[in-house]
Each structure stands twice: as structure tokens, then as C-alpha cells.
Amino acid sequence: MAEPVPPTRSRIPGSGLAKGLAVTLRTMTKKTVTEQYPDVQPDLPPRSRGVIGLFEENCTVCMLCARECPDWCIYIDSHKETIPAAAPGGRERSRNVLDRFAIDFSLCMYCGICIEVCPFDALFWSPEFEYAETDIRDLTHERDKLREWMWTVPAPPALDPGAEEPKELAAARKTADKLAAQRQAEAAEPAGTAGTAEPAVRPGSPAEPHADEQARAAEGPTLPMGESRQQTDQPGQEGRE
């Protein structure tokens, strides 16, 4: 058995037109604001996705950004370099050296996946957006140009007052405090050694005997040179032998 169809609400003829005119009237009564671009630069949010900057020192050529890019617009070339052993008998190490890092912004869709997956913070968003070119081939930015965009990357937002200190800063501060304490100890060591040194005896004046020697001298007579205390305490021992 078919279900009954609910009755449709009757619409007033021209209601849609009235709503549209109402929106038009509300817009007409508002004051228009015109951005005087390019004479006046727009006030963009600090985390705007304008262009991608490269911090080359942090790049380890892990290729993670190029593999995760959905448009395959990141091009990376590198070679391996052998590092000699730091100590005798150690093993040599090899590292990747970056030769080329380029991003084709004519293919990029500004999804930000490459920046999110980078484990070493080598890619950053810059709010700069004025890099249009007349030739599409000029939209491929090599690593030198990507490095220039790093100067326009805004500073990270301040931490929440109740947030924990980052581990990197805590480790750096702990190391700095340890080095400062070590330097203070090294600086205080010569002063402490000089304060505990025995005073020098003036030439021509008799040396003052030690307190222990004065106590032993008061207890008994002084022994002759070369004679032992055992022979003095046990007289007649030679005769019995």
C-alpha cells in the first residue's frame, strides 16, 4: 500500500522575488568599502597561503614532501657525500646533499600537505602573493628563490601562558645553565686555591713548628738523631740478646 503524500505548503506567488529584493535593499543601504589595490596593500591574515618558502639548512632530502604532493610539483635532486670518521678507528658516515629543490607553482594547488608532512620544519607558508609571471616557466621557483621567501615568513604565534615549554628550548636552556655553572666553578677554583695556601716564612726567621709537633714535644724528651723510640722504651734489650 502506497504511503500518503504529505500535502505541499502553498507558496505565495512572487515570494522569491520579494526575498531577493530585500537582500538587494539591505546591501544598498550599507556603506561600500573599496580596497585601493595595488596602491594600498591588503591586510592579510598572518597564516595566509601565499607562497612556500624553503629553509635549506633543515632539509635532509628525505623526499617525503615530494612523495606526498598530490600534484607532483616538487622536484628534488641530491647526491651522497662521505664524511670521514671523527675519531681514529671510527666508521665513515654518508649524508645526502641537496642539489636542487624546486616547486612549480603553476601546478601547485596550495593544499599545504608538503608543509604538514615535513618532519624537520624546512617548508613554511609566506603571505606574499605578488609573484605573477608572463611566462609560465618562470613560475617554477628554484631553491634560491624559495630561500628568499623565508624573509617574508611571519613569526610563529606566541605560546599560551599556561602551555608547557617546548622540549627544544628546555634542553637548550639546561645545557646553557650547565655550561654557565661549569665556568663559574672553573673561575672560582684558582681563588679558592690561593686562599688556602700556607703563608710563606720570612727569610731569617725560625719556622713555627706545627701544633702536633708542639704537643709531642711537651709529652716527653726529644729523641737523639738516629735513635728509635723502640730502643729507648725497652732498655737492656741488647744485653738479653
TrEMBL record:
<feature type="compositionally biased region" description="Basic and acidic residues">
    <location>
        <begin position="164"/>
        <end position="177"/>
    </location>
</feature>
<comment type="similarity">
    <text>Belongs to the complex I 23 kDa subunit family.</text>
</comment>
<keyword id="KW-0472">Membrane</keyword>
<dbReference type="GO" id="GO:0051539">
    <property type="term" value="F:4 iron, 4 sulfur cluster binding"/>
</dbReference>
<feature type="binding site">
    <location>
        <position position="65"/>
    </location>
    <ligand>
        <name>[4Fe-4S] cluster 1</name>
    </ligand>
</feature>
<feature type="domain" description="4Fe-4S ferredoxin-type">
    <location>
        <begin position="50"/>
        <end position="79"/>
    </location>
</feature>
<keyword id="KW-0830">Ubiquinone</keyword>
<dbReference type="GO" id="GO:0050136">
    <property type="term" value="F:NADH dehydrogenase (quinone) (non-electrogenic) activity"/>
</dbReference>
<feature type="binding site">
    <location>
        <position position="59"/>
    </location>
    <ligand>
        <name>[4Fe-4S] cluster 1</name>
    </ligand>
</feature>
<keyword id="KW-0520">NAD</keyword>
<keyword id="KW-0408">Iron</keyword>
<feature type="binding site">
    <location>
        <position position="69"/>
    </location>
    <ligand>
        <name>[4Fe-4S] cluster 2</name>
    </ligand>
</feature>
<dbReference type="GO" id="GO:0005886">
    <property type="term" value="C:plasma membrane"/>
</dbReference>
<feature type="binding site">
    <location>
        <position position="108"/>
    </location>
    <ligand>
        <name>[4Fe-4S] cluster 2</name>
    </ligand>
</feature>
<feature type="binding site">
    <location>
        <position position="111"/>
    </location>
    <ligand>
        <name>[4Fe-4S] cluster 2</name>
    </ligand>
</feature>
<feature type="domain" description="4Fe-4S ferredoxin-type">
    <location>
        <begin position="99"/>
        <end position="128"/>
    </location>
</feature>
<dbReference type="InterPro" id="IPR010226">
    <property type="entry name" value="NADH_quinone_OxRdtase_chainI"/>
</dbReference>
<dbReference type="Pfam" id="PF00037">
    <property type="entry name" value="Fer4"/>
</dbReference>
<keyword id="KW-0479">Metal-binding</keyword>
<keyword id="KW-0874">Quinone</keyword>
<keyword id="KW-0004">4Fe-4S</keyword>
<feature type="region of interest" description="Disordered">
    <location>
        <begin position="156"/>
        <end position="241"/>
    </location>
</feature>
<comment type="subunit">
    <text>NDH-1 is composed of 14 different subunits. Subunits NuoA, H, J, K, L, M, N constitute the membrane sector of the complex.</text>
</comment>
<feature type="binding site">
    <location>
        <position position="114"/>
    </location>
    <ligand>
        <name>[4Fe-4S] cluster 2</name>
    </ligand>
</feature>
<keyword id="KW-0677">Repeat</keyword>
<comment type="function">
    <text>NDH-1 shuttles electrons from NADH, via FMN and iron-sulfur (Fe-S) centers, to quinones in the respiratory chain. The immediate electron acceptor for the enzyme in this species is believed to be ubiquinone. Couples the redox reaction to proton translocation (for every two electrons transferred, four hydrogen ions are translocated across the cytoplasmic membrane), and thus conserves the redox energy in a proton gradient.</text>
</comment>
<keyword id="KW-1003">Cell membrane</keyword>
<protein>
    <recommendedName>
        <fullName>NADH-quinone oxidoreductase subunit I</fullName>
        <ecNumber>7.1.1.-</ecNumber>
    </recommendedName>
</protein>
<dbReference type="GO" id="GO:0005506">
    <property type="term" value="F:iron ion binding"/>
</dbReference>
<dbReference type="InterPro" id="IPR017900">
    <property type="entry name" value="4Fe4S_Fe_S_CS"/>
</dbReference>
<keyword id="KW-0411">Iron-sulfur</keyword>
<feature type="compositionally biased region" description="Low complexity">
    <location>
        <begin position="178"/>
        <end position="200"/>
    </location>
</feature>
<dbReference type="GO" id="GO:0048038">
    <property type="term" value="F:quinone binding"/>
</dbReference>
<keyword id="KW-1278">Translocase</keyword>
<dbReference type="InterPro" id="IPR017896">
    <property type="entry name" value="4Fe4S_Fe-S-bd"/>
</dbReference>
<feature type="binding site">
    <location>
        <position position="118"/>
    </location>
    <ligand>
        <name>[4Fe-4S] cluster 1</name>
    </ligand>
</feature>
<feature type="binding site">
    <location>
        <position position="62"/>
    </location>
    <ligand>
        <name>[4Fe-4S] cluster 1</name>
    </ligand>
</feature>
